[in-house]
């Protein structure tokens, strides 16, 4: 038996004690280190999640602020409130709240208004009593009054309604032009407040994208460090948004707990394994963060960079001193047609295919992003010729995307419109370039097929000129004497007697001189003035109709005017005010209106027919109309375009085509009018093939109504004109 001395036992005990304490200290150091790591990871995750929540909430409020800036700086609404034209205010301002697509509550009060006007998404277009309390309205007024008088700032706030938070933004409703703003009385201007509900779905989306859970409204804070207050109209918090932050450190510790146990048993080997696990988990967290950042900056449908990624790319580009870049804005032509025929799923498939084709045609000098709908933005940068590189890029895009899209047996030829704007100096911001590219793209949309337009001085001058036309048009509508009507006769193809006249609008602008009809009508449509202009022109035509109660009038109507909800009521009212029989009117429409909003157009045409008004399809043969559309739509007359009439004497194929068109129209039971008749020979052929009526310079250029009636004579006959006499003799023979 071996006996240990007391000294040996003491030494062993001391060694054991030292080893024990050393092991305990090592265990403690490991434990403290792990706990510190857990807390640090959790803390960083809490901070990042909090920043994401606050950022996403701010984006929702920014949208409301932008809507308020747009709607509260609207000259027509400002003037309508002064004129007490509350119907206009409801139809243009309140309707957006009723529809609920951009905001769901709107209140206009103060200024010249005795009582507030309010609308919400559960109400009707007619304004109702405001659900905001008198105290809330007063607090909003105080907030608006504290805003700087210069500029167009807004007062932002939040309110609680039925347990839900609504973000609001308010300001005085003012003219949109700086000239009109300079003379506006801000103290008499009404206050417009726009509110939008933050839905539970939006809170869920924010929680998901911010990697938090249980994001909710609360009056009591679970943790003040991870909550954000919602400031009410009086500047005090009305509630708080709080949430449960992610705890990746806890997850990490739970994963390595078994490893820690092994470390306590076998320090050396398990220590190495633990270090590897720590490294692996850190890498996993980094990958998750990278994935979150990628998802936040990627379009979910195409995988292309989104608007946030585009913004950051431009910031990086400009921060490195690169100013030589161009913006290419593009969208898919007739995308709505694909959605209508193939459904939204088919539209999504087209967007995916289109995005993949764009990505395949992109090189390292091109950054492509999808910013919404069927709209894409590409940024091109180079040290060389930026316009040339942009055109080459567009050529590649056209080749890659210009393919036929097949979806469940449906085939769609795909074309795109492109606008290019180059940054020529550092004073031009990205937003400026985007606006230029947008205008260039819409210039490309004037024609079908793949087209590209580079924004240049000529296009800039055209844009500036159209802005001047728009400003002049707004003034002219208030003083309608600048507008007048000319008329062109439509005659019976056999008897040459006057059948009707087509009303043609003219504008002699006081500041710009005569403006072509196609120009000012286009500006009116794009600026939202077409309904007002159309009503003004109808009044002038009806006044002329009163002077000749036995004559029919053809009236051209803009598609936007026809599709407006107030068209039929306005037309009915004006007919009654002027004592005009509806049977004396034929309304002319272009072919394009039949394709877009088909059901709405059909309903409007049926109402017109019930009133006794006939309708004509203008410029027939040049657009998209099919036999199916012609059978479906309650049309009475087809007006054959001038392109089928010109050159009849030299082109036998054209004559055969014309004969087929007339035969088709007569088979469908339509009256046929030929436009652009300039020669006796054309008139004779058109009468022979079966046209009922003729119109063109052969009979008269557009001129005042009294001159046409004087030429026609009391019997509505054009036999006083030599050309008509020759034609009558030719037809008689």
TrEMBL record:
Superkingdom of origin organism: Bacteria
Alphabetized SMART domains for the sequence: EAL (SM00052), GGDEF (SM00267)
Transmembrane residue ranges: 256-278
CDD domains: EAL, GGDEF
GO terms assigned for molecular function: cyclic-guanylate-specific phosphodiesterase activity
Residue ranges of domain EAL in the record: 466-716
Keyword rRNA-binding among UniProt keywords: no
Domain GGDEF: start-end pairs: 323-457
Gene3D superfamilies tied to this protein: 3.30.70.270, EAL domain
Entry keyword Transmembrane: yes
Keyword annotations: Membrane, Transmembrane, Transmembrane helix
Record's protein name: Bifunctional diguanylate cyclase/phosphodiesterase
Lineage: Bacteria, Pseudomonadati, Pseudomonadota, Alphaproteobacteria, Rhodobacterales
